[in-house]
Queue: 4 jobs
Job 1
Amino acid sequence: MNSDFEKRLQEMPLREIPGLWKDRIMAAAQPQPAWWQEWLWPNPRAWAGLAAAWAIILLLHITAPGESGAAGTGSSASWQNFAFLRQETELIARFSDSEEKRPAASAPPAATKPRSSRRMKQSIG
């Protein structure tokens, strides 16, 4: 039975696909660009250059000697020391006999500002 059906199909003439259908089918078969390709399309060389620059910065940051970690821990250690000293002076004042020696409640320290050793020359006139 299968062979009869196949023979009849081979004998039938092929019909042409309508032009509109053919255009739609071919358009759907084309590969669609990914969302990131559409987003980067306006200038892909600029994006590639930016990515290369960030890769170099990351590589330099990773391979740099341990300076980046030292800066953060040094400042936190000094704040810890300051808090410890303040607590210690309060304990000494609490256990001392005279009230005159008690230190006044200190205000919280002001935020540290960057300092420069370079002096600016100002001219008047």
Job 2
Amino acid sequence: MTTSRIANVPNIITTIRLVLSIVVFALIAVDQFLAAMIVFIIAASTDWIDGYWARKYNQVTKVGRVFDPFVDKVIICGTFTFLAAEANSGVLPWMAVVVMGREMLVTGLRSFIEQAGGDFSASFSGKLKMLLQCIAVGASLLALHYSVGGNVPAWLSWTVTISVWIAMLSTVQSGVEYIFAAARYFRE
């Protein structure tokens, strides 16, 4: 059930997440990578909280169904973009393009299908993709923090490389899964 009240706890949490994402971008821009990582983790964790609250207390709104995924895309796409600009982040520019391209594609498909009355809710692979992207971002920000001091531990360098590549594979895989789901919807 969807309520009509816009100013509710889940939407306020989502608004706070949007503000925190801007703080993350500003912190990356001024090389405060450890602080950026902490704020990113707080912001990313609120995504679960607002969804849980909305469902548990019947506070799902039409605005929230659009605003929440929009803010998710801002924080992930924005952070990957800022990381791609950092030499030692492990995130290459094409990776940020893949993340943004997948998000725009899924948003367009979701908008079209839901406008036509279909259900195109987030899948498990989409949620797993978000988790893996968050792990990659956290590892990258931690490595950048160490690189300011001049010495990134070998284990962290490997963690960044592996987590970024797994996040990329998951991004592509979940995008392909959404394409097939949309194709099934259009055939019906």
Job 3
Amino acid sequence: MSNKIVPAIETHPILRIIGPFHGFFNKFATSGFLLFCATFVALLWANIFPHSYEHLWHIQLSFSFADLTLSKSLLHWVDEALMTLFFFVVGLEIKREILIGELSSVGKALLPVFGAIGGMVVPALIYLVFNVGTSSVKGWGIPMATDIAFALAVLSLTCKSLPFGVRVFLSALAIADDIGAVLVIALFYTASVNWAYMGLAAVFTIGLAAANVLWVRHTLVYALLGIGIWLSFLGAGVHATVAGVLVALFIPARGRYDTDTFVRKVHLYLKKFECEDQSCGHTILLNQDHLNAVQSIELACHHTETPLQRLEHGLNTWVSYLIVPLFALANAGVAMHIQEMSLAFRHPAALGIIFGLVLGKPLGITIFTFVGSKLFNVPLFGGVTWLHIIGAGMLGGIGFTMSIFIAGLSFPTGPLVEVSKIGIISGSIISAILGLVTLTLMSRNRPGK
């Protein structure tokens, strides 16, 4: 019998499944509060000093390289360049979830995917009911999205006794929702396509695929090819942020070393640390063999960590704590004049968005999840009940970041984008309050409490 004692908590099957999810949940929950602060500042700024707010984000910034010149407003650089990194991280998360996470098998993915489909179809239909035959009909994609950072931030405010399966379901649903939103942007919000540039993008994409097949693990190669795809999409008329997801799908998910090779090499290098009196002290400056061993272990760690994990870890903080709040600061500033607000709330676009987010999201998520569960005989997991699904569906109505992004694509100019933002902010706030109250009450009324 082995003398090694493994704590029961570390070997419990459910903890092995949800363990990697903790960091993901905590990061997005925390960034959600920063996103809220940026939104609040943007609203104050746009209403107290509207001229300075508009002036700052419309400053033109130009970059030239050889014969190529890119000139865009600061707002467009945030929306089309920095947000590409946001979509890149979303793509990395999608790939990881498909490979090893909640979307890695049919059984795991079925209910969140069904819920995500319902949470996109029903809000879009509700929006169309309000806007069919009007000039605002092309904004049907706005209420389809779920803002994962805001949703998880609100979820983190609920009672600690809430089943962890609710968090897993909502996160997997939001990831599946992101896939749908990216497809909608790529397929339906591209006005015209320059096929010559699309051909160039295809060449760079083939280069990405070749680098992956040839086991190229230097992220610089993928970065350069990714920039080429981004510029090609920009020239082709396809929204350049879609390039972020496309590049992410080709980032290698395997390191140069597998775990067995890593362990074998590290054991070999550790054998070089043989010192008198069982203590080496500070020998790195004195013993070249020790320094070489440490550097070899560091290199082995680098070869074992996958490029996907390395990039996600390196970029997640920048995206969560800088890029997304900066996007909110640049886009959430809406002048809230009483008369204009009154007119906006009567506009079919705002009504379609509000009802799509507040009513369509929970209805679509709950109904489609229920149909998927019964159709394929897949039960709910992790202590989740159907009332929890309804509460999670309400939080799914927090559409903020992606909804504002799609609103900018739907209505690039004119007052409709401001009307849409009012609808998005209002619908997201109502959804957050309803979801928070519902899940909090349910957690307090759990059996045994």
Job 4
Amino acid sequence: MKGIVKIFCACIIVISIIFTVACTKKEEVATGPAEKLTVWVYDEGRIATLTDIGKKFEAQYGIAVEVSLVDLGQLRNQFLLATGGADCADIGIIPHDNLGSLVVNGAVIEVSLGSKASSYLEPAITGFNYNGRLYGVPLSVENIGFFYNPDLIPTPPETWDEAVAMSTALKRDGKIDFMFACPDATYNVYPVYDSFGGEIFGKNADGSLNGRDVKLADAGFVAGMEFLAAQVKAGLIPENIDWDAAHVLFESGRAPFCPTGPWALDRFRTSGINYKVTKFPGAVKGKPGNPFLGVQGMIISSASPRRLLAQSFVMEYIATESGMRDLYNADGRPSAWKSIFETSGGPDDLGFNAAGVAAVPMPSIPEMGYVWDAWVAAAALSFSGERTAAEALRNAKAQVESQSQ
């Protein structure tokens, strides 16, 4: 009898081992073994540096880090689909205005910077906040600046009225055709709206944006569009908005000012035009207009089975002064790390930094997607004189509100 019991117990043990091994294999098939962390980026500049940082992580944790170039649209879509089991990286780098849909769909996890938060630019942290919670670790920031031609304007204007007066005198003397040509009537001239007190959305009690409180028709936004429309009527801004034509006017010396971003540097340098970059004028002295701020940062997939390892990599190897400096040196975009932002770069970089020191993070809430077309249409109606700025913006507000329901 005892022999039968021993044989039975042995069989149970063997079955248990087989079951355990089978379950382990099944888990590996479902989630993949924790043999590497995967990081997706949508531009090549950071790949080599992230790979080097990954080797340091591997030396400590024994986990390799694989960095891959992935189209931004694919990156975003795969993070969204990962909640349904699709293949996805553990970590991704995105511009913050792609964050809203990822958070709403539960595709990314909340992160905490802890004591490191004070080392970051506050607007950069704000960019990756959604409803008062942080969902990404900022890496770099980007904003447009106010280009001016020092051969035409030795000292840049502090107010928009000064810019108008300077340009009017230059045009009267036949030295220019326009004050500045708008690359667009929205993003690149947002500092005008901001300087008059314009906002796109109101805020909730916790400081997060309220997509139901559309402020396009409020007094500040209307005043900004009225100023721009008045310059169109005066012949200082072309009625027809064209991105390339705007840059040609500046680089040919026929406009003393151009609101644009670092992407224009190569063409301006190639043209040979003398230029400087500085902060934007304001409606009143001492209060410059603020551009939109774009923030790039790291997000962690909620579907990743290696979330804890991903957080360790990001917080211990990226969110440090040395990690952030390595990434700044590799990429060149102004760093979201405060001390690096304030001290790095040449005259152009420092000019953009001066313009963006209090920049407004681009709204990342889903309702922002409805704003652009409505805003463009309102500007076209106002600049052509078909509608007053107030009328055009009331229509724009109504359009955004109806689409957001």
